[in-house]
Amino acid sequence: MDIADSMVSLARRYNRYGERCKYHVNKSDNLGLFADDTFDFVYSLIVLQHLEPRFGKRYIAEFVRVLKPGGVVAFQIPSAYLGRTPRPFARLLRGLSSKVIRPLMEMYCIPPAEVFEVVAGAGAQMIRIFNDGACGPDYESCHYVVYKPR
Fold this sequence. Notes:
With about 150 residues, this protein is α+β, with helices and mostly antiparallel strands. It is built from four helices and four strands.
């Protein structure tokens, strides 16, 4: 699933699994196109970091909602901005990226305590958290593994 028609079109084009694999465009801020308890496994990598925290938290709760009891969710999201790129250089990169190179993608963080709160509130259990380095040197990035009890 993706919010971009172009990404879903590419996925369909390169699909090697026929009808066993389905691709969906989702333009809403929830996973309402899927019923409760639908999937055994949900995985998200380098996606939630581009959503404002209120939407990222909503998606985490939605991941749990669509997960079957006994299922697992794994997702990544930055937990903190470390600011290791010197400010003048970061400002220069931001200016260049918006004018010359390409638009700069927004990056958002959700602290682990808030992720734990969302997961527990959705009725799931955190079973593992580890730093994964997925966002580069300026961010602490965490990978979470969540279990939905039977």
